[in-house]
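To assess whether the prediction recovers the assembly geometry, we first specified each molecular entity separately, as shown.
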Amino acid sequence: MMPIELTRNRFVKATLRARWPQFVIRAIALAGFLFAILSGLIGTPVGNHNFSIVFVWIVWWALLMLIVVPFLGRGWCAICPIPMPGEWLQNGALLKPHGKGLSLNRKWPRRFRNIWMQNIAFTLLALFSAVVLTRPSITGLVLLLFLIVALVTSLIFERRAFCRYLCPVGGFIGLYSQVAPVEVRVKDPAVCAVHTEKSCYTGSQDGYGCPWLVYPGTLTKNINCGLCLECLRTCTQDNVAFNLRSFGADLKQPSGRKLDEAFKAFIMLGAALIYSAVMLGPWGALKSAAYAIGTPQWLVYALTLLGLIYVILPGTFLIAVALGRKLTHSKETLKKSFVAFAYALVPLGLMAWIAFSLSFVFASLSYLWPTLSDPLGWGWNLFSTANVAWQPYLMSIVPFLQAGVLIGGLLWACVTARRISAEQQQGRNITLQALPVMGFCFVITGGLMGLLIG
Amino acid sequence: MMARSRLSPHWIVLGLLALAIVVVPNPIALAAPVEQHFRIEASAFQYTPEAIHVNPGDHVTLDLVSTDVVHGLYLDGYDLNVTADPGQTATLFFTADRAGSFRFRCSVTCGALHPFMIGKLNVGSNDLFWRAIGLGALAVVAGVWVMRPKGDRQ
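The predicted structure of the complete assembly is given in tokenized form:
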């Protein structure tokens, strides 16, 4: 499918270029975020009656994984409140550029211009997730830490360095944004090539230079584009478009594949497996081990998690890729093939997270109603919903949805693996090289099915 | 005049196979319904035993015994709920008239990991799981056999 330029429509273009809609949404999100921190720190310690747990880990998570990431990619990053205070200080302005900001505007260190820091940050969160997801005070502290780190990063480094290189959530949103059916791209790269001002990157009085440190003229993937739309505002050549496109379009791009992003795919896939076992499985000892931080049981859990996502999954995948290369006498290096084929795990991982989230979210969503009325657990009843009883939703249907989602993810991964193989091989060898990777995907999907619907 | 697109034979074969996986009845013979009685202990975020197995049609009695705080047991798919006070036994009767694997989960806030306090009831064979595995295998076949560029087919 050829991309459809949505910004051809004058109303759409004007809405996207306007600062106020985005600002209002972000301001509301910031208020909610600050209230989540507050309620986490001073509200009831009972997680499922505290705004911070219910709104962050159930409502926000549901919106993020079931709607925003699959359909809007980095749509959340476009309205994320976490970097807002830092951006205000950095820019010295709330809206359009004017005046001078406070930031030192240093360049981000070259050796850290990748997503390894985000991989490590997500891994740390995953290690402590049983506590972070269930104890409001810890959730409050973690959210506060996000805010402080984002603020300090903005004061030292240029643009949204926190979002691009540190945010543990932004890392996986970026990876999975490659499948989303929307994109910001230039209409004609030739126009950019001869445009010497490069106002999309340097900024102008109409907007900021790309906060994500991306030059839109060469943008080919969503992974580092935060959909902030600044380039739409600053381009003096009317050469930036917001497009509707086919799902997974970025996965067809052979260029720009990296080892840090490949590992992000393993981290996310491994975390989906572990979370499904710990949170949705019937094994009480496993839950206790994940929760009892610092104990020998937790250490075993932590080593298992680390071993799975950094050794077992990549190691097994490497064997699958090596087998495919051996069968086809491939001339590509093993590292290049390993990195390339890891992108087949992007749709598989996203669907795994959607399947996980379906049962988690629908089982817990009804906690929303009492929490709306009594967000701090202090006995309020603001909207007369404080006494609505817990009731899981759609639990008869959810296993069928999960099965469908996982099968769809497997099919998508197999098609992607085959397409990646076609970049390196010809004829019969295309299938032959991709087969072991498809087998890996099938085994992982079977494991997820066993954990979620078995 | 627009050419009419024809459905590829590959798709027809795969579609029929998928249909067969979904609708062909499970050949495993069902045992005659019997009375089944289970005692399930509920304590800090786990049920013991963590999983129970019955046959379709069995008349099931679940005795829920809480050994620490108040716990509940909500059975997915059957929409049944029971609550047990500490040291007390609460009983749930039902006929296992729906086959498959069903989670049961604590329905009373009991502590930090309460939302994840989950057990499992297996009623007969888990057809959904095995059919999903079959469809997954078919998805791999589809990835290899059907969903490739036309110029690439031999």
